[in-house]
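Handout, section B. The chain below has 154 residues.
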Amino acid sequence: MTEVENRLRQAFHAFADTVDVEPAPAPAPRRRLAGPLVAAAATVLAAGVIVVLAAQPVPPAVVPLPTPTVVSLPNFALLTHCGVDEAKIGIQFYEAETPLVGPAQSAPADWDNPYQEGTMTLDAPGSAVFRDYHGHEVRFRLRPGATEFKRLCD
């Protein structure tokens, strides 16, 4: 302890010895009313809620319908070099419901090669549709667990 702390401690002790302090009276014993009061308040509150609820008209049950989330990817480049059989959308792989393959396992007739520009729309969980400006439309379904294309050509 420092010298200053020692001197302060001695001064406080000397002051405490000179002050006449009457001991505080012992607290009166408290009655245990908290439990019954809480129970009474809860009863009154519950009765009031029941009366208020009884006075309210009952609304018809409303079940919210799930809102389908449609995601459209414009300027999507669909790989057509080996035919229209698969699509990679983000990190997921999809396969065509009806594959389109041209001669010698290439792009179908009147499709661009190696890519066809169009719009890919994710219209339902695990389902997508590709549409281009020529009017082509191909539906795809998710290949769960796929990490690469089924086959690649040169």
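Note. Helices lie at 3-18, 34-55. Compare this with the example in section A.
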